Amino acid sequence: MSNRLPLYFIPHGAGPWPFMDLSSGVFGPPDNWQKLATHLKEIGETLLPAPKAILVVTAHWEAPVPTVSSHPSPGMLYDYGGFPAQTYQLNYPAPGSPALAQRVQSLLGEAGIANAEDKQRGFDHGTFIPLMLMYPQANIPVVQLSLQQQQDPGLHIAIGEALQPLRDEGVLIIGSGMSVHNMYAFRSPDPRHKQNAELFDVWLQEALALPEDERKARLKLWQKAPGGTASHQPTPEHLTPLFVVAGAAGNDTARRTFAEELIELKVSEYRFG
């Protein structure tokens, strides 16, 4: 369909990184972070017409069942620590959408997937940090969807499949996480971290280029991939949003739209459709 929106699995980066001085290189080459900032801004500028609403599957929210945020005016959730004081004053005043939240619940229910709503949750940094770059006007309604806390890839692919109709309803689905996320690798001298990240990055690019059924089958076995579990430590929540996006992609092909070293490890972004 010509009006069907694409989907993105984006790297949301380290904490409130766009609103900090990164010149010290503490998070790796500052130029690479600037490239990411420029890239995220360009998505919002070039994806036309603008979406009617945005559904963010965020790595920073896990729940017993997939849970959707339904507050009409969400607040801010500064779910990071140890950053400069001004980063706790950031504000992204986009409206929520109880109607979209209800639609998400309906689609999941029709697919036999247990779900819930959260009427109070505010925007976490997996949501507001990239959206402050992509859609700084904050004039598009935003709803968040949690991960199921057991992180089963098959379930999250099924969640995405259930949500696929939203793409024809003007809803932009974004998986916000990181293709590689190893908390133990940060500033570590062990070269195996970088090697594992590069191996997994290659595997992931190859897996996402496969036809739909093969792609889903391969993603369900990601833990057996070269560098797979080693690149997502201690837990895989930053990869799991990709499974939802891949499920919602249907037979649309994936292409890598960003790839740089962030926090010293290779990180990629993917667009479907």
From TrEMBL:
SUPFAM superfamilies, sorted: LigB-like
Alphabetized Pfam families for the sequence: LigB
InterPro entries xref list: Extradiol_dOase_DODA (IPR014436), Xdiol_dOase_suB (IPR004183)
Cofactor: Zn(2+)
UniProt superkingdom: Bacteria
Membrane-spanning segments: none
Annotated ranges, domain Extradiol ring-cleavage dioxygenase class III enzyme subunit B: 30-255
Family per similarity comment: Belongs to the DODA-type extradiol aromatic ring-opening dioxygenase family.
Designated name of the protein: Dioxygenase
Taxonomic source organism: Cellvibrio polysaccharolyticus
Taxonomic placement: Bacteria, Pseudomonadati, Pseudomonadota, Gammaproteobacteria, Cellvibrionales
